Amino acid sequence: MSANQFSVSPIGHIKTPFKQKFAIPRQPNLAKAKGTIYLREDLNDPDMFKGLEGFTHLWLLFVFHQTKDKGWKPAVKAPRLGGNQTMGVFASRSTHRPNAIGMSVVKNLSWQQDDSGLLLNVEGVDLLDDTPIVDIKPYVPYADRVADAEDNLASYGAIPQREVLLESHVKELLNIARKKHPDIKQLLIDVLAQDPRPAYRHKHENDDKTYRVALYDYDIGFKVENGSIKVMDFGPDKRSSV
Q1: Where are the domains of the chain?
Q2: CA 179 to chain CA mean position, Å
Q3: CATH, domain 12-65+100-144, list 2.40.30.70, 3.30.70.330, 3.40.50.10840, 3.20.20.60
Q4: DSSP E strands: which ranges in the chain?
Q5: C-alpha distances out from residue 79 to 4, 197, 222, Å
Q6: Does domain 159-236 have CATH number 3.30.2310.20?
Q7: What distance lies between CA 135 and its chain's CA centroid?
Q8: Helix runs in the chain, H state only
Q9: What is the pLDDT of residues 105-116, one digit of tens each?
Q10: Of 3, 49, 206, 31, the residue nearest 127 (C-alpha)
Q11: Which of 173, 174, 175, 188 is the most exposed place for a label (fewest CB within 10 A)?
C-alpha cells in the first residue's frame, strides 16, 4: 500500500431504533433518538473514555455501509431541493460519496463497561441500526461552533413540523410498547412530525398512500390527511429479529 493510501477499520457499531433508511431524521438532533455504541472486543479498555465526561457532545464518524458499494457521482440529487435538482457531492451530505464516510454531532449520555464490553450511550442519532463507527471525537464549542455560518438550504424552506394524530388503538399499543422502549411514543411523534415522505410530496396536504416506518422492533403505518400525519397501524415488525 502506497503512502497516499490507507485503510480504516470500524472501532465498533451503533445500535439505534432505526431499522431502515426511510424516516431517519435528516440531520442529527432533530429527534431525541438514543443509540448505544459497542466497541470492538480488542478495544475494551476504559482508559479510552478517560475524561469523556467533560464533554456534553461528541462527533461520530461512521460508514454509510448500506450504500458504499453503489458507487458515487460528482453531482447528486438533493432531497431538500425536491429530489430533482442536483448539487455537487461535496456541497451535500449525500451518502453516495467517493469515501462513504459520514459525521454526526450527538449528545454524550454516559459510558459503561459490562459483560458485553465497553459501551457508549448517546442521544440525537440519525444513524441506521448497526452502522459501523470509525472514530469518536469530542465536540469543542469554541472551535466547532461558527456563529456566523450560513447555508443556502434554508432558502428552500424549513423541515416540516406537522401535527401527528394517533388512532385510539395505536395509543393503547404504544402504552404497552413503552414498557420495553420508554421513549418510543415521543420518538415516533418527533420522527413523523418532520414528514419523512420525499420532499416533492410535502406540497400534498392529502396523500392516500400508506407509508410504513420501522422503529425498534415495530412497524408503523401512516397517511397524510389535511396536512396532519395520521398513524393508523402499529404492531410488531415481522422483519425484525429482535
Answers
A1: 12-65+100-144, 159-236
A2: 23
A3: 2.40.30.70
A4: 12-15, 34-39, 57-63, 75-77, 86-88, 101-114, 117-123, 131-138, 164-166, 207-215, 218-225, 228-236
A5: 34, 10, 21
A6: yes
A7: 17
A8: 141-144, 168-177, 184-193
A9: 999 999 999 888
A10: 31
A11: 175
- Are 193 and 229 in contact by the 8 Å Cβ rule? The answer is yes
| Spatial separation of the C-alpha atoms in residues 130 and 151, rounded to whole Å | 30
Strand partners, 145: none
Helix (H, G, I), strand (E, B) or coil at 153: helix
**pLDDT of 112-167, one tens digit each?**
998 888 999 999 999 999 999 999 999 999 999 998 888 776 655 678 899 999 99
Cα gap 150→121, rounded to integer Å: 31
DSSP reduced 3-state for 46? helix
Q: Which residues face 176 on adjacent strands?
A: none
The structure's pTM equals 0.89
Radius of gyration of the chain (CA): 19
Q: Alpha carbon of 100 to those of 67, 184, 242: distances in Å? A: 8, 30, 27
192 pLDDT above the threshold of 60:
yes
Beta bridge mates, 77: 86
Q: Are strands 34-39 and 57-63 parallel, antiparallel or unpaired?
A: unpaired
Length of the chain, in residues: 242
Cell of 196: 419523512
Burial class of residue 185, CB neighbours in 10 A (0-12, 13-18, 19+): middle
Place of cell 455537487: 88
